[in-house]
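Blackboard transcription, Thursday session:
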Amino acid sequence: MSGDHNSMTTLAPSSVLRSPRPRNVIPGFNITMGFSLLYISFLFLIPVGGLLLFTMTQSWEQFWRAISHPQVVASYKLSFGASLIGATINLVFGLLVSWVLVRYQFPFKRFVDALIDLPFALPTAVAGIALVTLYASTGWVGQYFDVYGIRIAYTQIGVVIALTYIGLPFVVRTVQPVLEDLESELEEASAALGANRLTTIRRVILPALMPALLTGYALAFARALGEYGSVVFISGNLPYLTEITPLLIVAKAEQYDYHGAAAIGTVMLLAAFVMLLVINGLQWWSTRRFSH
Amino acid sequence: MSIGVDRINKRFNNFIAVDNVSLELPEGQLTALLGPSGSGKTTLLRIIAGLEQADSGRIEFHGKDQTHEHVSDRGVGFVFQHYALFKHMTVFENVAYGLTVKPRRERPNKEAIRKKVMSLLELVQLDWTAHRYPAQLSGGQRQRIALARALAVEPKVLLLDEPFGALDAKVRAELRRWLRRLHDEIHVTSVFVTHDQEEALEVSDRVVVMNNGRVEQEGTPEEVYDHPANPFVYRFLGNVNLFHARVHEGTATIGDLRVPVPEHSDSKEQDALAYIRPHEIDVLANNESGDAIHAIIKSILVVGPTVRLELQTEHSKELIQAELPKHQFRGLGLLQGDEAWLRPMQSKVFLREEDATNPQESDL
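(Written on the board underneath:)
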């Protein structure tokens, strides 16, 4: 009894000393947070900061001239316009593809499913050359359009096709898991309440998929905006017509006009930031509106 | 509207879910489909609803063939175990859904819909939740909303699939009493699926006990509980002790005890099992009558006003469970390890080969 008492008195103060501050249950906060910050800095913060600093070494007039040149403005229009059209096409057909992949059984389903990721893995230059071969006026597909006087390669239509190609997996891969998790009971409940198939899709399924669709749409759009490799082959890079903004940045850099390249790059950066804000806003809104 | 189920069969690959089931579910009654998991009760309910197609057989509502009607044309209200409320709609919009999806000609106007929805929400006592979203409600509230939604289209029959299965015990008990009262108010022909015998016995007008895709017994809760048709029903409806018995010309013998079993009057020297519920056993401190079953008290558990005993006897493989009121047990003056004598007040004897038809023995 007295032994117990002794050990109690010696243990009590030391156990108080051992933990002077409350400890986090999950260990390693300091090291993981430190590494994450360093990692993000090297990959992202320092390059972006460098770009902004370098842009600021030029005069305002120089900057304005670089970013407001009609050729550059034409490229903004094409880049943003074609990216929007590509993302919209992907929104519709990406939903269709994920629907087919989730809801139906068919031969080689897993193979088709794997194929969706091809734009992620295939070097974009390879994709660009393949697209140009296919859609040139002598190509497998292009020749049939050529009959009706529709040219695809080396026109803005070609740019849209390339940007659609690279954006598809973003919509499919964000919508697919949500569709898989969608309870079939919701559709059964809707049917039991007398709704026909179309009404069920419009009023039950689409609202449930809306946050995922918006995310996929935004990702596809952002990806298309920055795309370079696959577009430059099919677009033909005609000034004022089929030049995308990333191409102009490369062109300026190749002519040692680093200030001009940085100026346009900064515009793209700001546009990307605005985009991210809008996307986050949309997601916040749709999550509040559609998933309680 | 009565429901007719006529020789329904349904297989999933090699698994026979529903095996030639025929039922008549009378108008205005609340019927429980009771059975263990895999007994085919949910599949049968889904076939009645039209959510599943039977391989063969007919479904009729009030004599009218519904077999090939689509679920959306059958006029059924279906309540799911996990509520299946539309998360992106408010409670009001959920309940109004069935009315707003009607073709324009039949659709009531906005004011009529509002009145109908609010009166249903009052019926389920949740009118104050109209502008909330399902995620802001508790499980029990969600299920009441799901019920209101199903009732909004004035269904001919109401079908509920384990409606209280996802709720905790207390809410479940409250909600089933509430469902009983609600049914007494609205009298729509209802079928609900459950694996909980207490729930089935408490809530329903009729119980259909199912096992392995077949109907084992149907009747009022009292009939089914007091006169189980076979060992499966006996065991499924509550705890039961099994005593080894010999049956000879209408008399079953358990040790020195003799029980008349007129239904087995032409059996000769056959092995049998006597089914006796824990509260149907009289526990005695001595063997004055000379024919009680000898046992040793292994454990004594006082649960509120009742005492649960576990007793060992040579006439049963497992320990015998007995339940008696506390004051009665105190009067006996028995302690753990003491000898005691048992006399069944009521029992049912099934011959051994009948019992062999039941594969669920070890489960229960």
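Lecturer's comment: The interface with chain A takes residues 49, 51, 70-73, 75-78, 80, 82, 84-88, 97-98, 101-102, 133-136, 146, 149-150, 152-153 of chain B (CB under 8 Å).
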